[in-house]
C-alpha cells in the first residue's frame, strides 16, 4: 500500500497493530482523525497516554483501577464473603454486565498453559491464597469462573486443590451454561448471568 505521506504511513502502521484492525481499516481511522477537529485528535492521544502510563492494578484483586484499591473492592455494599476468580479483566466486565453478582473478584492474569510457558507462579494464585487465609478474612466462598477450555479447566483444578483444605471456604464453579471451548467475554449476558446464579459447589 502506497502512502502520500510518511506521517500517514507511520500512523497507519501503528493503528494496524491493534487486534482486528487491518491496513485498510487503519487507513480509514487515520484519515478520519486527520479530518477531525484538532482537539478531538489531541483528546484521544491524551486519553490513550493517560490510560497507558497512569492506570494501576488493584492491590487486592488485581483488577484495573485508578487507585490502589479498585471501586469494587472499596464498595462496602458488595458481598465481601464471596470472591469470583477470573482469568482476565475482560471477564470482570462481562460478569458485571449481567448484574447478577454482588461479590468481589480476583483476577489471575491468565491461565496455566505449559505450551505457552505459563505456570502457576506466573499467575496471582499465591495472592488469592493469601487473601483467603489471612487473619480476619471474611471470605467464605470462592467461585471459579474460568473459561471452560483445556487450559481453563487445568487452572480450575489446580486452584480447587490449593483451596480444598481451607476449612472455612467452599469452592464452587459456575454452571456449564457456557459452551465448552467458549470464552466468557463472548457469552451473552443471560447465559453468563444464569451460570453465575446456578454455580455448583466443588466436592472436597
TrEMBL record:
<keyword id="KW-0479">Metal-binding</keyword>
<dbReference type="InterPro" id="IPR015967">
    <property type="entry name" value="Rcmb_RecR_Znf"/>
</dbReference>
<keyword id="KW-0227">DNA damage</keyword>
<dbReference type="Pfam" id="PF13662">
    <property type="entry name" value="Toprim_4"/>
</dbReference>
<keyword id="KW-0863">Zinc-finger</keyword>
<dbReference type="InterPro" id="IPR023627">
    <property type="entry name" value="Rcmb_RecR"/>
</dbReference>
<dbReference type="GO" id="GO:0008270">
    <property type="term" value="F:zinc ion binding"/>
</dbReference>
<dbReference type="Pfam" id="PF21175">
    <property type="entry name" value="RecR_C"/>
</dbReference>
<dbReference type="InterPro" id="IPR034137">
    <property type="entry name" value="TOPRIM_RecR"/>
</dbReference>
<dbReference type="Pfam" id="PF21176">
    <property type="entry name" value="RecR_HhH"/>
</dbReference>
<dbReference type="Pfam" id="PF02132">
    <property type="entry name" value="RecR_ZnF"/>
</dbReference>
<keyword id="KW-0862">Zinc</keyword>
<feature type="zinc finger region" description="C4-type">
    <location>
        <begin position="58"/>
        <end position="73"/>
    </location>
</feature>
<keyword id="KW-0233">DNA recombination</keyword>
<dbReference type="GO" id="GO:0003677">
    <property type="term" value="F:DNA binding"/>
</dbReference>
<dbReference type="InterPro" id="IPR000093">
    <property type="entry name" value="DNA_Rcmb_RecR"/>
</dbReference>
<protein>
    <recommendedName>
        <fullName>Recombination protein RecR</fullName>
    </recommendedName>
</protein>
<comment type="similarity">
    <text>Belongs to the RecR family.</text>
</comment>
<comment type="function">
    <text>May play a role in DNA repair. It seems to be involved in an RecBC-independent recombinational process of DNA repair. It may act with RecF and RecO.</text>
</comment>
<dbReference type="GO" id="GO:0006281">
    <property type="term" value="P:DNA repair"/>
</dbReference>
<feature type="domain" description="Toprim">
    <location>
        <begin position="81"/>
        <end position="179"/>
    </location>
</feature>
<dbReference type="GO" id="GO:0006310">
    <property type="term" value="P:DNA recombination"/>
</dbReference>
<keyword id="KW-0234">DNA repair</keyword>
<dbReference type="InterPro" id="IPR006171">
    <property type="entry name" value="TOPRIM_dom"/>
</dbReference>
